[in-house]
Amino acid sequence: MDNLLKDSERKMKATIDHLHQEFGKVRTGRASVALVEDIKVEFYGNPTPLSQTATLSTPDSRTIAIAPWDPTMLPVIEKAITASDLGLNPSNDGKMIRLNIPPLTTERRQQMTKIVRKYAEEAKISIRNIRRDFNDKIKAMEKESTISKDDEKRGHDQIQKMTDKYVEEVDKVAESKEKDVMED
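Now predict its structure.
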């Protein structure tokens, strides 16, 4: 049962890590390479994440600089950014691409807040599904008589405490990201 608990906790931590990754892609008023690093570009015939084809940096709080390792990739990268749903216009100077991040409007901030809440809710659902799977395994172990009724009850209590802890962490992370989105 300890192995099941450890496995469940590992999965819940992975859910939180994934949530952080998703939140990194949510645009705030500041520049972040996380916005563009996963955009797929055609690199020698293969769709490849932008972060594996160029050096990404943020020279200031409103600009993302993209310096491709192969200068012939500039038009391909430009096209991929324009096709993405970021709504950013790339500026190409022949050596690198600059993306100016305009300040968000109040309406756009509210839309971003809704996206943050959606990601948070998906994370909570994932955590609850992990709890359900664990509880099902515990019930099966009790039916097979490999654990006692008391152990089953203890297992359910432990997984519920763990679930509550990670759901609370999702709420904290989401609240922090919402504040970040609403700030100038």
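The first helix runs from residue 2 to 25.
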